[in-house]
Structures are given as C-alpha cells and as structure tokens.
Design goal:
about 60 residues; mainly alpha; 3 helices
Length: about 60
C-alpha cells in the first residue's frame, strides 16, 4: 500500500514542478495543456501568476 502513496506523491510533485516551470517561462508541454482551436490557436494565454498559484496548490 505504501508504494501507491509514493507513486501518487511523485505524480503530484511532477505536476506541481511542471507548473512552476511554466511560471518561469518554460514552454515544453504547454501547447498540449492549453486548449486550442482547429487552427492550433490557443483559446487563452495563462499568466505566470496563475501557473505559480496552481503549482502551489499542488504542493499543499
């Protein structure tokens, strides 16, 4: 049962660190996370602050 806890911990920390990476200006994986139109135009542009807030929530 402990192995499941550790796997979930690694997944949640990875998601959190990905959001911090985006908050600091990283672009890897960002186009897959933000919804786009049929012409590959992003529907919205999240701010660095919103990425930081979401990353912080995952750490809680």
């Amino acid at each position: 049962m402990n192995i499941i806890k550790y796997i979930l911990l690694i997944i949640i920390l990875s998601i959190s660190f990905q959001h911090f990476y985006w908050a600091l200006g990283g672009t890897w994986g960002k186009r897959f996370a933000v919804p786009t139109t049929e012409k590959e135009i992003p529907l919205f542009e999240p701010s660095a602050f919103s990425f930081f807030i979401i990353g912080s929530f995952f750490l809680l």
